[in-house]
Design goal:
- It is elongated, with a radius of gyration of 25 Å.
- The longest helix has 29 residues.
- The chain has two domains: 137 residues, no CATH class; 88 residues, Lipocalin.
- The chain has eight helices and eleven strands.
- The strands form two sheets. The protein has an eight-stranded antiparallel beta barrel with strand order 4-5-6-7-8-9-10-11.
- The chain is of the alpha+beta class.
């Protein structure tokens, strides 16, 4: 998915979810249905609830769905999620496409349909009531427009650039790491000691801050490393001398349970954080 596509899809998704909340209420107040808008709301809520910062941003939107700052924060987080997870990006595209197809002239909850980037995604904008009269004074009087001076334009551009740089810095250093979107942040969640009981006795996995690991189970420990190709997903490579093994692992949402899958997916071992 191209960057512009992600921006368009995320913009439409956030706008539809905000209007759904404003019109009907939150998922906590009224159970979600099988409508396209509710499925879109559910997909966004499920993805953001996977981290503390994401859940905080979601609560901000649910508390004040018309707040542009809350909408902007949600859009930044969703855009980063879509960039990191192609499957989630396609899910958003599919639901937004369904939402647009079900309302070719007006989007859900009063959205005006606008073509963006060659696609009919909904854009926010007030829709005049049907049959609304337009007074003669509205036709005869030309609209007064503000024409900034050259100095004013330069100041506006400078302020916009500064705000953009601040936003990018906050996104890179605060939002993305706290949401577990960067690999380093995901690996930091795994740091610590993990244990489990097997038929052969107990086993221990130590994950260090430099992302090296040590796996032991009643024999000399096997050193290795861990990587994180996607959110909540990890790959362990351990060297036990004659045998080098790769394990895939998945961390639950609470961060206290790690499921290791052996090569080929035959056996699974659940480890718990000490």
């Amino acid at each position: 998915m191209r960057a512009m596509d992600i921006a368009n899809v995320v913009y439409a998704a956030v706008d539809a979810v905000a209007r759904r909340i404003a019109s009907i209420g939150t998922a906590g107040a009224l159970a979600l249905t099988d409508s396209v808008a509710d499925r879109l709301y559910g997909a966004v809520a499920e993805r953001l609830s996977g981290s503390a910062i994401g859940a905080h941003l979601l609560r901000g939107l649910e508390t004040a769905p018309a707040d542009t700052a809350a909408q902007w924060a949600i859009a930044q987080a969703l855009a980063a999620e879509a960039e990191a997870d192609g499957q989630f990006a396609e899910e958003l595209r599919h639901l937004v496409g369904q939402l647009t197809a079900s309302a070719p002239q007006h989007g859900a909850f009063g959205l005006a349909s606008t073509t963006v980037g060659g696609q009919g995604f909904p854009r926010p904008g007030p829709i005049p009531p049907q049959g609304a009269a337009v007074g003669p004074d509205q036709i005869s009087k030309p609209r007064q427009t503000f024409k900034p001076t050259t100095g004013g334009v330069i100041v506006i551009i400078a302020v916009a650039v500064i705000m953009m740089l601040i936003s990018m810095t906050v996104l890179a250093k605060v939002v993305l790491p706290q949401a577990g979107i960067t690999e380093s942040a995901r690996l930091n969640r795994l740091e610590g000691i993990w244990t489990t009981q097997t038929s052969n006795g107990s086993a221990m996995l130590i994950v260090r801050s430099d992302h090296t690991v040590a796996l032991s189970g009643g024999s000399p420990s096997c050193p290795g490393r861990v990587t994180s190709p996607a959110r909540s997903n990890y790959v362990f490579e351990v060297d036990c001398g004659l045998v080098k093994t790769t394990f895939e692992a998945k961390l639950n949402l609470r961060g206290n349970e790690l499921t290791l899958t052996s090569p080929g997916g035959v056996d699974k071992v659940v480890m718990h954080r000490e």
